[in-house]
Amino acid sequence: MSDDAPNWNWVMPTEPFDPEVPWGQHLTSVPNLGGWLVHDEAEHFPGDLRGYFWFERLKMGAVQNAREHLDLLLAVLDTLHTTGAELVHATAARNVIGYEGYWQHYMCWLSSQRLCTYVLHPLHKVRLTDEGRAVRLMLRLTSTLHSDVAPRLGTLDRRDVPVLGILDGTPR
User: Hey, how many other C-beta atoms are within 10 angstroms of the C-beta on 118?
Assistant: First the structure.
């Protein structure tokens, strides 16, 4: 097995997700020769938090434009985000994704990843799960897009949240 291959045995943390804390609070980073390793309870993963999320949590394969896919995920999660318990029409994602068949598939995929929940079906009214909200926050804080494309949280300073040290490779 290649060092770059995903660990298909990843198990989601059993404790509930805090939607006000970026996804990845259960991880640390450790220095490595010329770079960093993301460390979970079982092993080290070469790369950054977004890479860990892509390979280990989403179980996606290696692609050149994974960051673009994660920024699309951020845009969809931003569209579906609400601050309360209200539901959002899943069709809101259509404006982000565009193609009719693709947004429908994408909403089903989000539901299968447990990043959103729904009442009747994934194409009706949806709400982000606590993990979906935590993922949204992590993706927002790690996005390299211009702030006009993916608005960042202007009130949150990375130094105020200890877990965010992992975002730029600083050990905690």
Answer: 17
